[in-house]
Amino acid sequence: MTPAAGPRWPGRAVGLPDYIWDSRLRNYVSRATGRMVSRALLQDALGAVCDRGAETLAAIAQAGQAGTLTPRQFYEAMQREVRQLYNASAALGKGGWAQMTPSDWGTVGRALRDEYGRLANFAAGLADGTISEAQALARARLYADSAYRQYWRTWAPSNRAWATKKNAGLLWRMRRSVLPVWRSKPRAGNPSAACRNRATPTQAAAVRRTTGA
Fold first, then answer.
1. Considering only CA atoms, which of 164, 157, 148, 143 is closest in space to residue 100?
2. Considering just the CA atoms, what is the radius of gyration of the chain in Å?
């Protein structure tokens, strides 16, 4: 029986129920082998979850633009999906639900409040007909990309072994470009190969230390 997501099974949120957090190693380990799980694997799994979330958000946006959903229904459905993606990304970056502190949840909450404000504007645009179907689909998918970046916002401050003041600052500056897509599957308009080509030598070295790529 697959365990539910929760404090002991943080990987369940991204389809990895067999991985648990080892507070001594400050890393995920496999229940079967006891070996540490590579960060690249976790990032790829989260990327797949966010990719599916992007398509769910796009479907909601399409229904909202077509009038199948009312603006209120559109807003509430988008809000639920965005919240789930943000929470899963943050918890995975921190080491699981049990590792999330009130401060961590506060950070996620502030990010979500900003997103909810943008969603309200999105809903208003659909209601008055100023947003086309193509615009709605593209805009909806951006929320999944933002949720993916929450992983890095949560992970960097908690990684004591790597996140020195200098490197943590570098991660923060890179959060919208290099790091979010370095290990993820190529996406239209933002492929991993192009991202690697844009990286400076300093950024590339930082990513390799972080992801093992």
1. 157
2. 18
Alpha-carbon distance of 92 to 95, in angstroms, equals 5
CA dihedral 9, 143, 193, 29 (to 10 degrees): -10
**DSSP per position, 71-118:** HHHHHHHHHHHHHHHHHHHHHHHHTSGGG--HHHHHHHHHHHHHHHHH
Strands annotated E in the chain: 19-22, 27-30
Q: What is the pTM of this model?
A: 0.69
Cα(63)–Cα(71) distance, rounded to whole angstroms? Answer: 10
- What phi and psi values does residue 22 have, to the nearest 5 degrees? -105, 110
Q: CA 19, 22, 5, 159 torsion: positive or negative?
A: negative
Q: CA 140, 143, 144, 145: dihedral to nearest 10 degrees?
A: 120
Mean pLDDT by 10 residues, the chain (213 residues): 38 61 83 85 84 94 96 97 93 86 93 96 96 95 91 68 45 44 42 40 48 44
Joined together, the tokens standing for residue 143 give 């929320």
